[in-house]
Structures are given as structure tokens and as C-alpha cells.
Specification:
- The structure is a single chain.
- The two termini are 26 Å apart.
- This protein has a four-stranded mixed β-sheet with strand order 2-1-3-4, covered by helices on one side.
- The longest helix has 25 residues.
- It is globular and about 45 Å long.
- It has nine helices and four strands.
- By secondary structure, it is an alpha+beta fold.
- It has two domains: 81 residues, Glutaredoxin (3-Layer(aba) Sandwich), CATH 3.40.30.10; 114 residues, Glutathione S-transferase Yfyf (Class Pi), Chain A, domain 2 (Up-down Bundle).
- Helix 1 packs parallel to helix 3, helix 1 crosses helix 7 and helix 4 packs parallel to helix 7.
């Protein structure tokens, strides 16, 4: 059985959980608490599995794979039922571009270790942390909203009416923005896609509030 090292509130792990549930793949969730015990991702045992000391990590037999986008693309190739990338090159490129806008331009600037560095090393208070977070999420969401609203390729979801990799990334980033109270009224296209996704069982089962390690 597939094994996923995960944390309920990690957006990167959340992405992979969505993909696994969309594909109907059973997996064992192994919790790695990012705050407890100084951060269980820094333990010797986990660092041996993933030297970056980040979640998620997917184990499939002898394969141990970090990085959520690599994991999802591996799952898409190894378990091609319910494909998460379009069949045509242009469609695949567009979906990857949307996903990378979140994974590379938004998420790295507001993930836990960056916020902890701002607070503990640079001495920024909670207000400064929250301002930093909201700024970079808003910059990224504004670009995504513009792209999705103007493109004829956008449908019920990020790319037409079939779920893709881009939807797997958008929903967790939106959840994080809601949790940190970033104003989201200016992104109606994103909001509509998120609502459509959240109505689906796979997204509900992958959500942080549905995880055994929540809290």
C-alpha cells in the first residue's frame, strides 16, 4: 500500500491527499507534526527519509519520493486512472503553469519555515508575519484570477470541466488564505472553482478537518 507522510494542515500534503482520493488510491497516512516536539519533520528518522525535512513524502514500495508536484505527476503516470493532466500538450502546459504559479510563486513565501524565520530570526511580530503572508498571497491570487477569468480554457474547474493538477493546488492554498483571514472577495473566479471542488467527496476527504491528526 502507498504510504504518505503528511501533516493535516500542510498545503503541500493536502495537494497529494486530494490527488490520491481523486484517483481512488488507498494509502496509509503517517502523521508528521510540524510543530510538536520542535517539529517532528526534524527528527533523525524522518530526515533520513527526506533530507529536506519537509512534508509530504510518498513511499511506494522501494520508492521514496518528496515534493508534492513530483509526487502527483508520478501518481498520474503510475496510476493513470482519473488523469490529472490534459491529453494535449497545450493543455498540459497551461495546467502546469497554473500549478507552478501556486507552488513556486505563492507557497514558498508563506510556508511554515519562512514564517518561523521571520518571527524567530528576524524578530518580526505576528502583525508583520500576517502582513507578509497576505501580501504575497494577494499578489499571486490577483494574477491567477486574471488568467482564469480571461481564458476560454477555464470552465467549472481551472481547466475546463475536468479536475486537474491545478485544482489540487488551488484548494489548499485557498484554505490557508482563509485560515489566516486574507481578504478573498476580489477573486470570484477562484472562489467559484474552489466551491465546485469542495462539493466533491475527494476534496472533502482530503481536507484538513477530516484528517485523523488534526488539532
Amino acid at each position: 500500500m502507498l504510504k504518505l507522510y503528511t501533516y493535516f494542515r500542510s498545503s503541500a500534503a493536502y495537494r497529494v491527499r486530494i490527488a490520491l482520493h481523486l484517483k481512488g488510491l488507498p494509502f496509509e497516512a503517517v502523521p508528521v507534526h510540524l510543530l510538536r516536539d520542535g517539529g517532528q519533520q526534524h527528527s533523525e528518522a524522518y530526515a533520513a527519509l527526506n533530507p529536506a525535512e519537509l512534508v509530504p513524502t510518498l513511499v511506494d514500495g522501494a520508492l521514496s519520493l518528496p515534493q508534492s508536484l513530483a509526487i502527483i505527476e508520478y501518481l498520474d503516470e503510475q496510476y493513470p486512472q482519473v488523469p490529472l493532466l490534459p491529453a494535449d500538450p497545450a493543455g498540459r502546459a497551461r495546467v502546469r503553469a497554473l500549478a507552478l504559479a501556486i507552488a513556486c510563486d505563492i507557497h514558498p513565501l508563506n510556508n511554515l519555515r519562512v514564517l518561523q524565520y521571520l518571527e524567530h530570526t528576524l524578530g518580526q511580530d505576528q502583525v508583520a508575519r500576517d502582513t507578509w503572508y497576505a501580501h504575497w498571497v494577494s499578489v499571486g491570487f490577483e494574477a491567477l484570477e486574471t488568467e482564469l477569468a480571461r481564458s476560454p480554457c477555464t470552465g467549472r474547474y481551472c481547466h475546463g470541466d475536468a479536475l486537474t493538477l491545478a485544482d489540487c493546488l488551488l484548494v489548499p492554498q485557498w484554505f490557508n488564505a482563509e485560515r489566516l483571514k486574507v481578504p478573498l472577495a476580489g477573486y470570484p473566479t477562484l472562489a467559484g472553482i474552489v466551491a465546485a471542488c469542495r462539493a466533491l467527496d475527494a476534496f472533502q476527504r482530503a481536507a484538513p478537518q477530516a484528517q485523523a491528526d488534526r488539532g
